[in-house]
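hi! just following up on the protien thing from before. the input was this:
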Amino acid sequence: MTIQDWGVSYDELEPYYDKFEYLCGTSGKAGNIKGQIQAGGNPFEGSRSREYPTPGQKQPYGPTLFAQAAKEMGYKPFPQPSGNLSQAYTNPLGVTLGPCTYCGFCEWFGCGNYSKASPQTTILPTLVRFPNFEARTQCEVLKINLDKSGKRATGVTYIDTSGNEWEQPADLVLLCAFQLFNVQLLLLSGIGKPYDPNSGEGVIGRNYSYQVTSSVDAYFDNKIFNPFIASGSIGMCIDEFNGDNFDHGPHGFVGGGYLGAVQTNGRPLQSTRVPKGTPRWGLEWKQAVAKNYLTSYQVVTHGGCCSYRDAYCDLDPTYTDRFGRKLMRITFDFHENELKMSQYLTDRLAEVAQKMGPRQFEKKPRTGPYDMTVYQTTHTCGGAIMGTDPKSSALNRYLQSWDVSNLFVMGATAFPQNAGYNPTDTVGALAYWAADAIVNQYLKSPGPLVQA
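and the predicted 3d structure came back as:
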């Protein structure tokens, strides 16, 4: 494992978590406010400065049934914090969002009700009114340009929808693409030393990590679940098996994750669950779908993923994109630690599912080798991580490049490993943390904010 410290503490980031959640109007129930445990919230969470901006979403039947079963087993269920708003909300920028209508299509689609926190609904309406803001849509940055020393960014080269190539000069460059594209642009631009898995040296591409999910499918005779009463992150969860919340001694792994009934969509084809042994097509399959569509339910785990010496990103030696640039290549597989963790979490989840009263249930822990045909979230992390030592990190604690001081890199690219939670809230908190350092430190005295 190549796991390591982030270089920034939770207590330092907490004000920025708070700021991001109040920008988004995040729905939830606090479990720990200033060290005081709050009933109905997650008792294992870090201390928060105040309550969520909006209450937790109202829960449909499946999550409610899961929470009842978990509570009877002695666990402390809580509503999953959600970027789908439980009620109308106006954020600190003056942008108003509407309440979620539980349409069942939110997870992978846009929201016509302005109920889902995203850049389009929380911040762009304000930004477009600034005279010094311009959004150039459907353009793609090809590379970050450097001066002759290679130590300073001079701007970026990008291509527009007509295929015209442009150079945008800049005194400060913020790299804010998706995790994989951030790493690709750094490699294509020659910024930082590429990672070599054989020697363990280099930092760009190092510490790639993912997320480890699993599920239990439960089939009932006397309960009806409507999958269309759903939103992108609604659900009830328990956190007893996340991080260091339990004794790992007898189990042979580190890490953990949350367990929950997370009712996110009603997409008809993807939401059809049938018992094991059912034919994959034909009359029997159709009959099984009809029988189980409204009487089956899936509960899930979301687990952390450690980083390893043999898990990394680099430029593909063969394949290129439409501009002739080398594509990003990922070398990754689940390790024994993560597979043991998934089996353990899935077993605990099955115990709760059984308590819900199904006629049968099927455990589906994550197994190896990695299977590209099974959706496993898009929560990829690492590749240009933050830290305290330029020999083992690409960015300092303020997400500033060790090699190019006027370049800051946002996103889950900076995660040294993935914890047992989804990355969005931490991505937002780190963005605010870095922005504060840029405004109050860098712009006043441009240069490295941390000395190597």
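Residues 336-355 form the longest helix (20 residues).
The chain has a mean pLDDT of 96.
cheers
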